[in-house]
Structure formats: structure tokens, C-alpha cells
């Protein structure tokens, strides 16, 4: 009986022409954009499964659902609206597709909050010049379909009712943007329409909420005398490097450099701050210490870019992995980044790290006073994607990673040998850069390599996932003992030492720098697992 009434009501709702038309239109929009853009929603699902987004899973799903609801209500209210209100919907829809489709054409993604921040400081003539690059005629198709729908279905709302509907949409999109801001999401999942207006709302909320990052007092305007380069590799396990005594020669070129007298301090296998990219990168840029500090402090501690700027460095951030901020930096933090290069600037592929290395090499040989941080592409799963097919040295490589766990290491080591060793060949074709430059090299985390029955890569809690390399190169390094158990926590204070940051402007009691005598005392070293639980790091 109840079932019957239920089905009847359900039938009525779906037979309602506004409801049915809105649903069909929105679903078609999803399908159309999957076809037109390399399937953004499909990529999102894939990203959830492959990359380190577990922390954001719930938040992304909420935004995804909210986006769908917004899209649906937008079309539903548009169809119900009276004639004299429809231009508002048509304009809003057309604007979002024009901008989003243009962005996708130029940079292979929709607009982000950071684009709006940068847009404000970009002169108009540059925007005009970029017009041709961004214009994507395909936006006409969904717009034409939407306008056609508006012409073929007559509305039923009065003007005040329609204004109320627009109010509902505004409230919904501001909530969506506000939520994305609170959840610290850089990408708003969903089709072009909600992603566009949600991002604007996110930008607005961000502008109203004051930054919670502590300030660093500027010390000098004089350009610094040295260069500092922080290289954060991706998924490179410290005990798989030839320079750390690994049985395979994965680092022939780097070994030559390290063996030269007085230009290298190799701290061997160090402890990562976390087993997930987002976690360890956030710790690296803020100096927050696992085991002593709460992880939440990564949102308030000053970043390394603030210190660098305060000491007279030009600051560069090169990201060979993504075109949105994902590693703990937020839109606000870009105020202290003079140059932000993204994955598209390096033509993504197994040689993209080398293009970044060459660009860095150019910057460093032309001037001093540069602080550069690079997130390498590294050797991410599937490892065969990290090296040229003819660069295979160790084989066979697995056809199926879970069924042939013993072979995984072959593909992985090929990746290290190709990616990491050649990166240093491109960065340091000779050692002249080291006259003026200090280089700190590490990785964000290690990797399980399917050992001991593990079937995950990282972001979990095994020691293998926390084993990272830690190496400093430079021609004027102090003589220090390198035999202690170093960790990611030592890196920020070391960078501050290299920048000559006076003690009175260091905002926190950081871990000892790698140059400090305090490292003679044994300390317990911890890392955060993927769920932010502390794990004791046992040196191999
Ligand atoms: Zn990673």
C-alpha cells in the first residue's frame, strides 16, 4: 500500500517536466564534459584511488555531491523562472562555460582559486594577448543546448519566487566554496558550472578570513649572496640509492659527485616526516616536528618561502607533478613565491624532471640570491612510466604487481637509475653551480615495493615508507658528523642556517639543524603514518 503511493509520488516527480528536463540536461552535461575534457570526473575517481588523497576523500565526495545538487537546482530553477529572469541564468551558464572550457584548453584543468589571486595582479594587456590561447569554441555547444531548453519550456515561477530561487542558489554555492576553503581543497570536483562559481566563492571566503600563517619580520632588502635549492623527490626510497650502499648501482653519476672531497654531506637513510606526500611536504615547508609538535601547526607556522623572502632571496616554486597546490602550500602562501612553475611548463612525461633541472641550472648559474624548491615527478607508481622503455637495466619487470611482488623492485630501480641519476646530470653537468649554491636533496617518502606481503605503496605505516635519502651538496659546507639518525625535521632549520636567519626571527623551536653539534645526542625519531598516527622510526 505504502509502496504503491511511494511509486506513484516518485512517478509524478519524474514526470514533472521541469524535474525531468533538468535531470536529463545535467546528466548530459556530465557526459559531454567527460567526452570533451579527458574525463575530469573519471580522473577524479582515478586520483582518489591512486594518489595520496585519502585525507581529502570525504571532503571531495561532499563537494562532488554538492556540485551535482547545485547543477541540478540551477537548471531546474532556470526552467521554472519567468521570461524576464531567464537572461540571468543564460548569462551565468555561458560565462562559466566560456571561462572553464578556455582554461581546460590552455592548462588542462578548470580554474582554481590561485588563478583568481594571480589574475588580479596580471595586467590587462597580457590577458588580452592570452585570449586566443584560452578561447575554446566548444563552450557554444552546451550553451546552445541550454538556451534551446529555456526557449522550449515555459516557466511557472513569479518574479519574487524566482528571486528567492536565485537566493537559494547563491547560499548553496557560497556554502560549497566555504566548505572547500575550510577543508583546504585546491580543486573543486564537479562539472564546469559549480566548479566555476564554487571557486569564486572559495576565493571570496579566503579573502574575508585572515590568513592564519604567522608572519616573518623582513630583515633585509639586499639580495642574498648564495643560492639555495631544496629538491623534494617523489617516492624515492633511501636504501635503494647506490650512494647509500645499495647492491645495485642506481646512482652512478651522483656517486661520482658524492665521492669528491669536501662537496657532499650524505646523511644516508633519513626518516621522512610522513608516509604521504601531502603530510611530509607540509612538514618540510614549515619545520613542524613529528613527535614534538601537533600536525595542525602546519597551517600556522611560517613557510620556508617567508623566511627566504625575509632574507633577501627571490623565491621559486617548481612543481613537476601538478598545476594546483597540493603539498601544504595555500593560495595565500603564494604571496611569498615570486615564480610558480607548474607541471605544464615541463611537458609531463618521463623526461619532465630533466627539463626542470635544466631550468634550475640556468637560474642558478646566472645569479645569486635565489631560493628554489622543486617537487620532482620522481618514480611514482606505475614505475615503468618513470623511465624510457629502452632504459631498462634490471628485469624482468612485473606484468601484474600484486601477483609478481618479487619483480616490482626491478621496475622501481630502473626508475631511480633513469630519473634520479639523469636529473643530477642535467642539473649539474659540471660542478660550477656549487661555487655559490647549496643543494639539499630528499624525497617526500619511501615505498613498500610490495615487500612482506604489503599491497599498498605508501601512506601507510611501514618503516620502508619512511626511508628517504638526505644529502647536501655545496663547496663551502662545514665539517660535521653525518653518522646520526637524521630526519625531515632537520631540514627547515638547516635551510634557515644556510640563509643566515638570525635566531630572534625564528618563530619556533625547530629541530637541530644538520650542521648542529646537538646531533651527537641520541633522539627518538618519529614519523606520521597516513592517518597522522606517530610511528617510531627504526634505522635500517
Ligand atoms: Zn609522494
If you had to describe this structure to a student in words, what would you say it looks like?
There is one protein chain. The protein is α/β, with parallel strands linked by helices. 43% of the residues lie in helices and 9% in strands. The chain contains 16 helices and 9 strands. It has helices at residues 2-15, 17-36, 40-50, 57-80, 86-107, 113-120, 124-134, 140-152, 159-182, 192-208, 252-259, 277-286, 304-310, 352-366, 408-427, 491-499, and strands spanning 227-233, 264-271, 314-319, 339-341, 370-375, 437-443, 467-473, 526-528, 534-536. A hairpin with a 5-residue loop joins strand 8 (526-528) and strand 9 (534-536). Helix 2 (17-36) crosses helix 4 and helix 5 packs across helix 10 (192-208).
Offer a few descriptive terms:
9 strands; two-stranded antiparallel ribbon; 540 residues; binds zinc ion; elongated; 7-stranded mixed beta sheet; alpha/beta; 16 helices; Alkaline Phosphatase, subunit A
CATH superfamily of the largest domain: Alkaline Phosphatase, subunit A
CATH architecture of the largest domain: 3-Layer(aba) Sandwich
Number of domains: 2
Q: What is the strand arrangement across the widest sheet?
A: 2-7-6-1-5-3-4
The percent of residues in helical segments reads 40-55%
Task: Describe the largest sheet.
Answer: 7 strands, mixed
CATH class of the largest domain: Alpha Beta
Q: Would you list the SSEs in sequence order as H and E?
A: HHHHHHHHHHEHEHHEEHEHEEHEE
Summarize the structure.
With 540 residues, the chain is α/β, with parallel strands linked by helices. It contains 16 helices and nine strands. It folds into two domains: 2-208, no CATH class; 227-536, Alkaline Phosphatase, subunit A.
Amino acid at each position: 500500500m505504502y509502496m504503491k503511493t511511494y511509486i506513484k509520488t516518485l512517478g509524478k516527480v519524474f514526470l514533472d517536466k521541469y524535474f525531468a528536463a533538468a535531470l536529463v540536461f545535467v546528466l548530459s552535461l556530465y557526459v559531454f564534459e567527460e567526452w570533451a575534457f579527458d574525463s575530469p570526473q573519471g580522473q577524479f575517481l582515478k586520483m582518489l584511488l591512486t594518489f595520496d588523497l585519502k585525507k581529502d576523500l570525504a571532503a571531495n565526495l561532499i563537494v562532488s555531491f554538492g556540485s551535482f545538487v547545485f547543477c541540478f537546482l540551477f537548471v531546474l530553477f532556470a526552467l521554472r523562472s519567468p521570461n524576464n529572469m531567464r537572461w540571468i541564468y543564460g548569462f551565468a551558464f555561458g560565462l562559466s562555460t566560456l571561462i572553464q572550457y578556455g582554461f581546460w584548453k590552455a592548462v588542462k584543468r578548470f580554474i582554481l582559486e590561485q588563478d583568481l589571486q594571480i589574475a588580479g595582479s596580471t595586467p590587462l594587456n597580457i590577458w588580452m594577448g592570452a585570449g586566443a590561447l584560452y578561447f575554446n569554441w566548444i563552450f557554444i555547444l552546451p550553451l546552445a543546448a541550454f538556451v534551446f531548453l529555456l526557449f522550449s519550456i515555459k516557466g511557472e515561477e513569479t518574479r519574487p519566487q524566482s528571486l528567492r530561487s536565485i537566493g537559494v542558489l547563491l547560499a548553496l554555492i557560497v556554502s560549497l566554496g566555504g566548505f572547500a576553503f575550510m577543508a583546504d581543497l585546491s580543486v573543486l570536483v564537479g562539472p564546469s558550472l559549480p566548479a566555476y562559481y564554487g571557486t569564486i566563492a572559495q576565493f571570496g571566503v579566503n579573502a574575508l578570513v585572515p590568513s592564519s600563517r604567522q608572519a616573518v619580520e623582513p630583515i633585509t632588502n639586499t639580495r642574498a649572496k648564495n643560492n639555495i635549492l631544496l629538491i623534494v623527490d617523489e617516492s624515492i626510497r633511501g636504501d635503494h640509492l647506490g650512494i647509500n650502499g645499495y647492491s645495485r648501482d642506481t646512482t652512478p653519476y651522483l656517486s661520482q659527485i658524492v665521492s669528491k672531497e669536501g662537496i657532499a654531506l650524505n646523511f644516508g637513510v633519513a626518516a621522512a616526516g610522513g608516509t604521504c606526500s601531502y603530510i611530509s611536504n607540509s612538514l618540510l615547508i614549515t619545520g613542524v616536528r613529528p613527535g614534538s609538535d601537533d600536525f595542525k601547526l602546519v597551517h600556522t607556522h611560517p613557510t620556508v618561502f617567508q623566511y627566504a623572502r625575509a632574507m633577501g632571496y627571490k623565491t621559486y616554486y617548481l612543481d613537476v607533478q601538478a598545476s594546483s597546490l597540493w603539498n601544504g602550500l595555500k593560495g595565500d602562501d603564494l604571496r611569498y613565491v615570486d615564480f610558480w612553475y607548474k607541471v605544464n611548463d615541463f611537458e609531463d612525461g618521463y623526461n619532465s624532471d630533466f627539463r626542470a633541472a635544466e631550468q634550475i641550472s640556468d637560474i642558478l648559474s646566472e645569479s645569486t640570491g635565489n631560493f628554489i624548491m622543486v617537487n620532482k615527478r620522481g618514480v611514482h607508481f606505475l614505475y615503468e612510466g618513470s623511465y624510457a622503455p629502452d632504459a631498462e637495466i634490471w628485469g624482468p619487470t612485473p606484468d601484474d604487481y600484486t601477483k609478481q611482488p618479487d619483480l616490482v623492485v626491478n621496475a622501481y630501480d630502473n626508475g631511480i637509475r633513469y630519473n634520479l641519476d639523469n636529473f643530477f646530470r642535467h642539473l649539474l653537468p659540471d660542478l660550477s653551480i656549487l661555487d655559490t649554491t647549496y643543494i639539499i636533496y630528499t624525497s617526500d617518502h619511501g615505498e613498500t615495493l610490495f615487500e612482506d606481503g604489503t599491497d599498498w605503496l605508501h601512506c601507510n605505516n611501514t618503516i620502508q615508507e619512511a626511508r628517504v635519502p638526505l644529502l647536501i651538496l655545496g663547496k663551502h659546507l662545514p665539517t660535521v658528523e653525518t653518522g646520526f639518525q637524521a630526519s625531515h625535521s632537520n631540514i627547515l632549520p638547516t635551510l634557515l642556517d644556510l640563509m643566515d636567519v638570525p635566531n630572534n626571527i625564528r618563530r619556533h623551536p625547530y629541530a637541530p639543524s644538520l650542521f648542529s653539534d646537538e646531533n651527537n645526542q641520541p633522539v627518538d625519531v618519529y614519523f606520521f603514518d597516513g592517518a597522522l598516527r606517530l610511528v617510531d622510526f627504526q634505522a635500517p
